[in-house]
Amino acid sequence: GRPPRVKTVGGKSKQGPIAGVRKGEIFEGDPKEAVKNLVAALKKDGYDFTVGIDPWTPVTEAERIVVAGRGIGDKENMKLIEELAYQAGAAISSSRPVAETLKYVPLDRYVGMSGQNFKNNLYIGVGVSGAGQHLKGIRDASTIVAINNSKNAPIFANADYGIVGDFKEVLPLLIKELDNGEEKKPAPPMKKVKRSKPRKMAPKEDLYVDLGSGYEYDPEVGDPTQGVEPGTPFDKLPDSWVSPVSGEAKEEFIKVEFPEDRK
Ligand SMILES: Cc1cc2nc3c(=O)[nH]c(=O)nc-3n(C[C@H](O)[C@H](O)[C@H](O)COP(=O)(O)OP(=O)(O)OC[C@H]3O[C@@H](n4cnc5c(N)ncnc54)[C@H](O)[C@@H]3O)c2cc1C
Question: Measured in angstroms, how far is the CA atom of residue 98 from the centroid of ligand 1?
Answer without folding.
Answer: 8
